[in-house]
Structures are given as structure tokens and as C-alpha cells.
Specification:
InterPro entries: PurS, PurS-like_sf. The structure is a single chain. This protein has a single domain (about 5-80), classed as Mth169, Chain: A, CATH 3.30.1280. The chain has helices spanning about 15-25, 55-65, and strands spanning about 5-10, 40-45, 75-80. It is about 30% helix and about 25% strand. The protein starts with a strand and ends with a strand. The chain has two helices and three strands.
Length: about 80
């Protein structure tokens, strides 16, 4: 069954307290190579049958209007993942 994956991230100008907490914890756990962290969201939409351009357009519209808050977040990717691969 194919899936459409939607990735949403906070806009660059928006503070990300979860990302700041994570980046502060990384060195304490021995991960010293990372200078910053931004935490986002991932949605997986299952599709019965083939993913057509119409279904993909619906997913993009849902991402822009429901899955993200356009005031503080950007939809950074809408991709199709075929489980058969």
C-alpha cells in the first residue's frame, strides 16, 4: 500500500524550544558534532490503490491547510513512498 509522507518544520524565525532542549542534551550523551537541532513533524497518509496526481494534490492541500500551521510552520516535503520497493 503506497503512502504519502508529509514533513513539516517550524519556520526559521520561530523559536524551537524542543530543538534547543535536544541540542543541549546531545553533548551530555557524547554526541558533540551537532551545532543545532530543529524538531519537526512527519505525517504518513496511506492510500488505497495508486497515488495519482489528483491524490498527491489533495495531500499537498491537506498539508498546507490541516497538517501544518502556516503562520509558524513550513511544509518542507510531500513525497510518495511505495511499500513494494
Amino acid at each position: 500500500m503506497p503512502r504519502i509522507v508529509v514533513d513539516v518544520m517550524p519556520k526559521p524565525e520561530i523559536l524551537d524550544p524542543q530543538g534547543k532542549a535536544i541540542v543541549g542534551s546531545l553533548p551530555r550523551l557524547g554526541f558533540t558534532a551537532f551545532a543545532g537541532v530543529r524538531q519537526g513533524k512527519r505525517f504518513e497518509l496511506s492510500v488505497d490503490g495508486e497515488v495519482t496526481e489528483e491524490i498527491l494534490a489533495q495531500a499537498r492541500e491537506a498539508a498546507a491547510t490541516l497538517l501544518s500551521n502556516p503562520v509558524i510552520e513550513d511544509v518542507v516535503a510531500v513525497t510518495v513512498v511505495d511499500d513494494a520497493e
